[in-house]
Amino acid sequence: MIAMSTRHILLGLLASGPSHGYDLKRRHDERFPQARPLAYGQVYTTLQRLVRDGLAEVEGTDSDGGPERTTYRSTDDGARELAKWAGEVAPPAPFVTNEIFAKVVVSILSGGDADAYLAAQRAAHMQRMRELTAVKTAPGADLATVLSTDYALNHLDADLRWMTTTAARLTTLTAEVDAA
Asked: In whole angstroms, what is the distance from residue 81 CA to residue 25 CA?
């Protein structure tokens, strides 16, 4: 899985106006509900790098009756960097690393049961798909949740189709691996 650029995501969130780290983390986790939640340390480290690189700047600090919070805003350079990044087509991966395929081959090489492994992996994928479908169809699920869940479900479905094809070709694959 390709990781999102935290740097650019935070610039995107700052594009709607100045914000402090706590708010940026909260908005990230709301806007990207199926992504790994950001750690506060990652948010503040990234903000410091954005300031260092001239893509964001400190607008001020306030305490508003609580702990002191620093407010950040995007700079013109930050807006240009964000526009450039958002307009770039994400290239398909030049190499496909498939852990499931690697485990099938290793299972064959080590005398394991590749068919049983594929069946167990399929069951795990099906369970995850049921969980995601429940999230997607939950009352009040917002569009960001539905779309990110659809993305994950489509990838899991592609994996399942690949596992079915591989299971059907396992005898041939085993012969090729054993012959090599």
From this structure: 20
Closest C-alpha to 22, from 30, 83, 53: 30
Helix (H/G/I), strand (E/B), else coil: 2: coil
Count of H helices and E strands in the chain?
8, 3
Rounded-to-integer distance, Cα 16 and Cα 39, Å: 21
pTM score, whole prediction? 0.68
The size of the chain, in residues, is 180
pLDDT in tens, 105-160: 888 888 889 999 999 999 999 999 999 999 999 999 989 889 989 999 999 999 99
Task: State whether residue 70 is helix, strand or coil.
Answer: strand
Question: Which amino acid is residue 136, in one-letter code?
Answer: K
